[in-house]
Fold these 2 entries.
Entry 1:
Amino acid sequence: MNRRLTRREMLVEGAIALGSLAVAPAFPGCAVVAASKRKIRLSYDAVVIGSGFGGSVAACRLAQAGLSVAVLERGRRYDINPFPRNWHNPLDGWLWSIGRGLFDLKLCQEMTAVQAAGLGGGSLIYANVHMRAPEAAFDRGWPRGYNRAALDPYYDLVAYMLDINPTPKSRMPTKARLTEVAARELGRAAQFCVPNVAVDYDAPGIEHLNKFGVSQRGCTSCGECCIGCNFHAKNTLDLNYLAVARSKGADIATLCEVFKIEPVATGYKVFFKDHANNEQESEISARYCFISAGAINSTELLLRCRDREGTLTKLSPRLGDNYSGNGDFLAFAFNTRESFNPSTGPTITTGIVYDRTDDGFKNWFIFEEGGYPKELHAILQLLNPHWGLFRAVGFVVKGALQNAFRALGGKVGATDRISDETAIFLMMGRDLADGEIQLHPRTAELSIRWKVPPNLALYEAERRLSTDFATAMGGNVAINPLWRLFHIPATVHSLGGCLMADSREDGVTDASGEVFEYPGLFVLDGSILPSATGVNPAHTIAAVAERNVEVAIRRFSGIQNWRAPEAALAKPVREPLGSVTIPAGGTLPTIAQ
Ligand SMILES: Cc1cc2nc3c(=O)[nH]c(=O)nc-3n(C[C@H](O)[C@H](O)[C@H](O)COP(=O)(O)OP(=O)(O)OC[C@H]3O[C@@H](n4cnc5c(N)ncnc54)[C@H](O)[C@@H]3O)c2cc1C
Ligand code: SF4
């Protein structure tokens, strides 16, 4: 499907290749990253925008099917470069908004969202948990053909590619044991489970090749999963799906951020900024275009194309709808009776399901124990009820984050603690997915509208259960201050905005992720999920991407039974949630009011 390049195209190609080899504007203390060591041509069969769970699956399968593929990823590569670790300067490589760093924070008025920027997307900083959405999650707004049974073979395939397994008993951190004990004390033992995680538990710290021939090391339990694993013990997407895509000829360019898509006679023209090359604007064209920039960014890109650039004017009026924060809720317990040791990882190893109707609202959520790098201990103590929130606010007001770091007297980054009595709790559940991603009509600024009152019953149940666990552990509960003070939820699991549906009146794409009115234009990522999964969603995002790219490849190639080569190797995987039992009438009410 490749064609010969014209002389002009070769010149432009040379320029992009040179640019992509150029050294990125460095942030101090962090290794510089080149955009790509490969050339980017001007034309491909398929271009994939973004390299998270949707984009990596798409790139891998399209390349395996013999299409020429380009991946344009806005962030840096971390497979060959270390993750940021400068604890004395919060601006050094940490933030996307400052120096194209790893974390992209969206501080919208009604929702705070955290996402990743980098090759491998959210897998770089996620907590590795893979959980299948329970059957009931598909009842709300999913197009025809979607249910758990239909997705199970694709979940199995993702499980094979990412080598998921429950944390072995011998590797369970103390925090997992304490959470299980607390669950038992609270009468919730039957809802306790050990989720599958994409972690390499082989010989700690020892280098070996994974099944795709990529070098990894075994998990050392360092607890740094959510700031990037420098051991590559997390089975992140750059080490499997993207490595296969690359081996099948896909060109992968990092620090290339797409800002416009335009339909042309031969497919789509994709315009991007080359952050490694003085923000030079370039374009490539492809017959097929897969947008996989994540729920917020894919929606924003399409909104800009429809409402500002005027290139995709026929997009559905439903664009931006059904945004969900996946019911995320964050809480802490300080001064626990026994040391919780939250910095001995991996970040998440256990879960407890809550499933009951409270005041007429059907609540379903999962409570997971969390963790954080030991260097964050001191700054998190600012949330300790014994310290008082005002002191924390004082630090920040005095001189923003950097001064707050200094004011702590260098305690951030201190690594001499041997025990830590701070527990962290992460919850996610089935919110109503009734938010909206918008561009301000005048300023074109991104905003996320989120209605708290209809979802309050869920957040309140999550707060009460956190209080019960904190009390059972002998600690004092502390709730995410943004929620406590302003009722602004925070999420790391944004979903929706480009929902799949059976018609353009109801959604942005069809049931296979192809955009209504735009043949050959696809969205494959968390934005097409019509409702909250209620569990960690990456597994479902990847499984839906596997399903949809298979449909697309069968159509492109005319091979009706095309399957991913690894489908033959994937075995049915036991979903730990399946062993959870829910009593008739629901799980116990909380003790806390
Ligand atoms: C701290 C943290 C912990 C988490 N833990 C878990 C967990 O344990 N389990 C779980 O299931 N989920 C977890 N998540 C959520 C999970 O990471 C996301 O749900 C998932 O990554 C979303 O996949 P996606 O394909 O939709 O998009 P992403 O993975 O976000 O990928 C989108 C990619 O597109 C790139 N991009 C964006 N805009 C552009 C553009 N204009 N041009 C080019 N590239 C672009 C981004 O840089 C990114 O690499 C966690 C998230 C965070 C932040
Ligand atoms: S705990 Fe997380 S960051 Fe540390 S080695 Fe294991 S997987 Fe990597």
Entry 2:
Amino acid sequence: MSTGVQVNSQKGAANFFEEVMLSTPGDTRLQMCIQCGTCAGSCPSGDDMQHSPRQLFAMIRAGMREEVLDSTAPWYCVSCYFCTVRCPQEVNITGIMYTLKNMAIKAGKFHEEEGADLSQSFVSNVENYGRSFEFGLATRNFLQHSPVELFRMATMGLGMWSRERLDLTPQRIKNIDQLKLILQKAKDIETASEIGQSEVMA
Ligand code: SF4
Ligand code: SF4
């Protein structure tokens, strides 16, 4: 088991737990996690994740740096924020998932073969259309990772489409330009926050 003490890359961090917290913009409240499992039970990607958010947080606390950064779990996170709004301890779960992805990339542990493309497709849909495009997202993901599963899910998709619960083409929201400005503003704030943190830690 890695202690994280010798290998942490965030200045000022005494161990992997602190490294994760200091690498995440804002207050993660990770220390407040009570291992209740609400996040694991809420996650729509939970079945595909190698570890649930709850398990990842226990592993972070245990200093299991290599195992956490090796986990495919963060790459299946689609940033839906469902876990974050349901967490009774207000842990910034989604933010931590982003941090783990960034740390994994820096550590050369990018899971290109896993859900990274799903996450990128979801973000791309939101940036271009202002909302998710479930049909395209699911079809592309199953074709790339599990074509057999695509046939199994086709019946369900057909049922959803017949009940007008599934669009076959992406639908763009009104005022997409305003959303793009908001997203750009959020990116600017995150970048400024990261620069500010680096200067504080320097
Ligand atoms: S829901 Fe919150 S408190 Fe419960 S296990 Fe997940 S992160 Fe921890
Ligand atoms: S934000 Fe990520 S980890 Fe949380 S419920 Fe959504 S997909 Fe799961």
